[in-house]
Structure formats: C-alpha cells, structure tokens
Amino acid sequence: MGSHGYRALLRQREFVGLYVGFSLMAGAGTLSGFALGMSVQVRTGSPLLTAVSMYGASFAAVVGAMTLMSVADGSRPRRTLVGLHLVSVGALGAQAVPGLPLPGRFGLLLVVGFFQALGAGTRMGLLAEIVPAEGYAAARSLMNLTSGGAAVLGFAAGGALSALLSPYQVMGAAAGLAAAATLVVAGTVRERSVRLARRPGLRETWRGNVELLGRPGRRALLVNLWVPNGLVVGCEALFLPYAPGAAGALFAASSAGMLVGDLVVGRVLDAARRARWAFGLRLLLAGPFLVLAVRPPVVVAVLAVGVAGVGFAATLPLQERLLALTPERARGQVQGVESAGRLAWQGVGAASAGALAQWVDPVWAIGVLAGLSLLVTVGSRPAVLREGRAVTAGGA
User: Fold this and answer.
1) Contact 262, 314 (CB under 8 A)
2) Cβ proximity of 240 and 37 under 8 Å
3) pTM
4) Which pLDDT tens digit goes with each residue over 363-392?
5) Burial classification of residue 362, based on how many CB atoms lie within 10 Å of its CB (0-12 exposed, 13-18 middle, 19 or more buried)
6) Which among 110, 127, 151 is positioned nearest to 233, based on CA atoms?
7) Is the Cα torsion angle 294, 298, 299, 301 positive or negative in sign?
C-alpha cells in the first residue's frame, strides 16, 4: 500500500481523530445494544422484542436518509458531526435511567437511528476529503478493523459487565464512551472550507436520492450492499434465544471474523483482486450459518460464525465501486444513504428473524434467512458484474 497504507494514515491527525471517534461510538453502540437486548429478553422473553431492541435503530436510519441526508454535504460538517454525537450521548444517558418504560426506550432507539444515518454520511464525507483517493480503501479498511475490534471488546465487555452491573449501569458506561468520542472529534478534526455552500433539506435530499437510484447497475450495487448483510444480521439477532449461555461468544466470533476479513481484503489485496473476491465473500457470509441448523456443539457454532464474519469484507470492494460512480459534491449523501440502507436492512433482518422465531424454532429461522441471503447474492450477481465493468471502463 506504500504511501497510502495504515502507517501513513495514522500520521494524519485528522484521520486519527475521525477514526478513533468512530471506533468509540461503535463500542458504545455495541455495549448499549447488548445491555438493552439482555434487559428486554429478561423482561419480556420475546425473541421479536429482543431482536428489535438490539437492531431497531436501523429502521429510523432510512427515514434520516430519505429526508435530511443532504445535511451530510453541508458547509460545516465538523460542527454537524459533533452535534450528532451529542445527541447520541443524551440518548444513551437517558437509556441509563432504570425506571424508563419500554415504549420510551424504543422511542430513544428511533431517535438514535435517525441521527445515526446523518452521522455516518457526514463522517464518510469528511473521510473522502481528509484522505486522498488512493488511500480511501485503506482508510475504510482501517476504520472497519477498529470498529470490528471495538465490537469484539464491546460484546466481551457486555457479557462480563452484565454479571457485575445492571443493564442500566452498562448503558451509563456506553454513554461515557460516546462522550469521549465527541471530545476526540471536536479536538482533532478541523472544519472543512472547501465545500460549496448548500441549503440542505428535504428537497435537496430527494434530488440527490433520485439521482443516486436512477441507474439500474447502481441500484444492484446497493441491493448487494444492503440485503445479504441485513439477512445475516437477522441470523445474529437470534443468538440470544438460540444459545443464551453462548450468545456473547457467538457475537464476539462474528466481530472477530469481520476484523480478519477487513484486514485481509483491505490490507493484502489490491483493488482488482478485491473486486474478484467480492462474490465469493458474499457466499461465505451466509453459508456457514446453515451449519447452525443442525445444532452443532458450541465450539463448532462459534467457529462457523467466525468464518462467516469474514464475508462481511465484501462490503469494501462494493463501496469502492459506488464511490467511483459518485460525484464529489454528493459523496457524503451517497455514502450516508448506503450506510443507512445497510442499517435499515439490519433492522429488517432482525425484525424478520424475531417474527419468524415466534412461530418456528430459532434454528430454522436462522437457516431460512441464511438461505435467502445466498439467493439474493446469486440473483444480483449479473447486474453487479455489469456495474463493475462500467466502473473499469470509466476509470480507463
């Protein structure tokens, strides 16, 4: 990777601040989601409510993407990102209140999800400006690695802390991580002065979204980025009802596999090989979950989930293709829509998994969702290949 490798990125103060803040927020989200899921599972015993509590914020992300995502390309992105972090701090702090009823908790989830989408778009827009184009893949890979590591630590810490603290005290710890992320971003990232002044709002957001979705190949890329991932996240949303005593290990294994995949795909492979491996990684993402349908020993299940986690790295080459098709003036909005769509499909996958598990054993629900993920991957491949050839021709 030469001058655009990890070491070069880590010498850039702004990038370090942006990715450390992102990683702290990822850890806060993982820790709070695990704590809330455990609390809801104990209080209700419902697989559906447990899944929605852990991934329900994703539903509101698509609302943010469809209404105000043009904010991500506004002229004051640093101020916007810091403000959105503060919203997360307040919401997580409110979740730490023991007496808050479930409707209030789910309402806070929706608020966090709505602003989470805007935060993702703003952050990725800043990233595209902070690092050169040649370093974008390495930057995304490093951020994904750190996020995966934060998720591993978050699930491990959630499992350990749940034995010592109440879920609400764990929520307080998550709010502390979010506050630290806010301070890091505020102290390291400078305001960008190179953007054109825009008037973000509903009209501008709709205009950009229509332009984004107006090309069939680009829609196929988004489907491949959103749907297979979301269905596999639905499988993961059933870890608690599937194996309550081993759920923490299963979550950690998935995050660890994701970390390994991002390291190999982002650090070892060049752009051409990343593009060639994308389809195989998508198959790897869902295939091992079929093993869980036979209720293997816990060690085998953990290994299968870890291997499947590597498949999440297919997201990186698909994101590169999408960025290559995006004009500079709309990078924040497009990347925010892509991120919001993935979050939304995670919520769809989790809710579908929970609803299905109300009627059938979680084992069978996991098998159905994994099979559907494979079908979508195979069915969308021709359009994704056509779009890949278009990107290559455009670069030439």
Assistant:
1) no
2) yes
3) 0.64
4) 899 999 999 999 999 988 887 777 656 555
5) buried
6) 151
7) positive
